[in-house]
Design a protein that fits this description.
Distance between the termini: 50 Å
Shape: globular
Number of strands: 11
Strand order of the largest sheet: 3-2-1-4-9-6-10
Structural class: alpha/beta
Mean pLDDT: 87
Number of helices: 20
Length: 595
């Protein structure tokens, strides 16, 4: 019933949205300020297309049921093996510069993973930092230590090197800060009873997200006992309130529980690295196919070059084979794409292998915990890497043009890539009320009753649809961050357009002290301009200046205030610091656990 209500409201929202945009394009353009009116209208249309893709993404929660855990390797293969045996599982902990004592905690937890059948569990530390202290931790715990002489390919290269030194049927990928739960393997390996399942991704959960300060306690500090009483009365009406809760918007529930989980119906849930389990056979086959395809492409180009050079219509067989062998030495064979977003890239390669029909599964249950960025600098490094890596794939190997992906898969991947184009329209949404309030120039022909009759039903139905479709998730917080991070996403977009390489930078795991107002200078500027524009606009309205009608002032005031609240979330994050009474710093927490 819940799904039906969501689908009904989502459909109604899109119908009203089409009706509104049709009216906007045909009746509401202010041709006296076409530069402004058309810019906003194109931005609205672009955002609405994103809403359509988002609705398709969330349409149904249909997912495969988790089978019972396999006992033998024969339970996971299409054809019976010559010799049946227990499963061999390699567990990779990829690390570079993280504290070895932090990695120790994850290794211990991995050693405590249980399984209902005999299993050959092999745990490996993949240390790209080549650190004696990390090697000592591995030796102390009795796990395998793997390193290499260089850092080619960053994390993807690190994983590839580990694949060369291991033989497990399945590969589990953890980051340095991942803490797997005891039931991790028992709850994921069952999906591999389907021989077409290539990988299983589990939700990432950050155990260290700041819980914030309860409202009664926060008010008591300022107002004494009266503040505590007032806070409790407020919470009685609106529910629990915490000040400073999750200041960086790190809670990934909406991404994993809704965006990723609801792609299972299309077989398009992609790998996110940590917390994933892979079938080795799928990784190696995809690598072979990719390697062969690249050789064929390069040798074809070489053959065309040689025919132009020699003037011959066709090359002789020996010359053609020689060209292939020469190109084969130039193409690197790797089961993980050597890319900053190797997880997403590898997912695309496997999903597009139509000959094998590989499947992915987004498991709905949290089976591990990790550490989140706890200052805005770390957060910015991580999100720029996500945005830049994704956009780099779009520019250089567009999956929408890749053969092998079906239409639903292309729609799901297209939704991901399209979301990173958001600064192109969010900038216009942020500055439009400022332009009106300072100039009196309206982006629509008139803010009449007809305008409100078209836009209000769409906004109301969309809000209801989001509320029902994302039930239990702070969707409003997600929308605020979606708008507030526009300078970062725009910088990533510009870097990719210029062909700048997006390098892999390890996200710091400990909190760096200080404030980061420089990182939010554009948000501060636009928020300040909004505040000034509101004062100026209402002054002009009070003076009866032409263009400042009541309808226009109401619309742009609410619009401006909404933008200011969205921008404030990241400005607040730049100046946030843990509350010593209610928030335990990350490093202190795990160091305390090791003592």
């Amino acid at each position: 019933m819940h799904v039906f209500v969501w689908q009904f409201l989502a459909t109604a929202s899109l119908v009203f949205g089409v009706w509104y945009l049709w009216w906007r394009w045909t009746y509401s353009i202010n041709w006296d300020a076409a530069w402004f009116s058309l810019s906003l209208l194109i931005a609205e249309t672009g955002a609405f297309l994103g809403l359509i893709l988002f609705t398709i993404n969330l349409w149904t929660p249909r997912s495969p049921k988790r089978p019972i855990a396999p006992a033998r390797i024969s339970d996971t293969t299409e054809t019976p093996p010559e010799t049946d045996r227990p499963l061999i599982v390699d567990v990779f902990f990829a690390t570079y510069s993280e504290d070895p004592e932090l990695v120790r905690l994850g290794l211990r937890d991995a050693q405590n993973m249980h399984y209902p059948h005999p299993i050959d569990l092999r745990i490996h530390v993949l240390d790209d930092g080549r650190r004696p202290a990390m090697a000592a931790v591995a030796q102390d715990l009795g796990v395998n230590y793997i390193t290499r002489s260089d850092n080619v390919g960053y994390k993807a290269g690190n994983l590839r090197n580990a694949m060369d030194h291991t033989v497990g049927d399945f590969v589990v990928i953890f980051d340095a800060d991942t803490r797997p739960f005891p039931n991790f393997l028992a709850n994921t390996l069952g999906y591999f009873r389907d021989p077409k399942t290539a990988w299983v991704q589990t939700p990432q959960w950050f155990w260290d997200i700041p819980p914030g300060v309860p409202l009664p306690a926060a008010l008591e500090r300022k107002l004494g006992r009266f503040g505590n009483w007032l806070g409790r009365r407020i919470e009685t009406v609106i529910g629990p309130v915490r000040i400073g809760e999750d200041p960086f918007g790190n809670d990934p529930q909406m991404f994993y529980d809704f965006i990723q989980h609801r792609r299972n119906w299309a077989n398009a849930s992609f790998c996110c690295g940590a917390g994933s389990v892979h079938r080795r056979e799928a990784l190696m086959e995809a690598a072979i196919r990719s390697w062969a395809a690249q050789i064929e492409d390069l040798s074809g180009k070489e053959a065309r070059r040689l025919t132009r050079l020699t003037g011959e219509a066709n090359l002789s067989t020996p010359v053609h084979h020689s060209a292939q062998m020469g190109r084969a030495r130039e193409v690197e064979f790797t089961p993980f794409k050597l890319h900053v977003s190797e997880d997403l890239y590898t997912s695309i390669a496997l999903h597009s292998d139509r000959a094998r029909g590989w499947k992915s599964v987004m498991h709905p249950e949290v089976l591990s915990r990790m550490i989140s960025p706890n200052d805005l600098l770390s957060w910015t490094i991580q999100r720029f890497k996500y945005a830049g890596g994704t956009l780099d794939i779009l520019r250089n190997d567009n999956p929408l043009l890749r053969r092998g992906l079906n239409l639903p898969q292309k729609l799901m991947y297209g939704t991901t890539f399209y979301s990173y184009l958001s600064p192109l329209w969010n900038i216009i949404f942020l500055i439009s009320p400022i332009i009106f309030l300072f100039s009196g120039i309206a982006p629509v022909a008139t803010y009449s009753l007809e305008f409100f009759l078209h836009i209000v039903p769409f906004l109301v139905m969309n809000e209801l649809a989001q509320m029902v479709g994302l039930w239990g998730t702070p969707a409003m917080k997600g929308r605020k961050w979606y708008i507030a991070m526009f300078p970062l996403t725009l910088a990533a977009l510009w870097a990719v357009i210029r062909g700048q390489k997006i390098s892999f930078t390890v996200t710091p795991k400990d909190r760096a002290s200080g404030r980061y107002l420089k990182l939010v200078r554009w948000q501060i500027l636009i928020l300040s301009l909004n505040a000034a524009a509101l004062v100026y606009g209402w002054s002009m309205f009070g003076l009866g200046v032409s263009g400042y009608t009541l309808g226009a002032m109401i619309v742009n005031t609410f619009w401006s205030l909404s933008n200011m609240m969205a921008l404030w979330v990241i400005i607040r994050a730049a100046i946030w610091s843990p509350d010593p009474e209610f928030d335990l710093p990350v490093m202190e927490a795990y160091q305390h656990e090791t003592r």
